[in-house]
Model the fold of this input.
Amino acid sequence: MTTEYDLPCADCDGPLARETIPPEELDVDATGPVPVATCKRCGSRHYPDEALEVIGQEAS
Ligand SMILES: [Zn+2]
Done:
């Protein structure tokens, strides 16, 4: 199955790597580290569905 991390960077077609970023660094309200796809070439960050799930989660 193709994941979002297998897709090329939307900005430069470079390869993406999965990283987890503290929510403070992304300035988002998340309950834990946010998984993002970071471009190894240009450093651009892309948010896969699982990142949006983490960001969208309400702390309860
Ligand atoms: Zn890129």
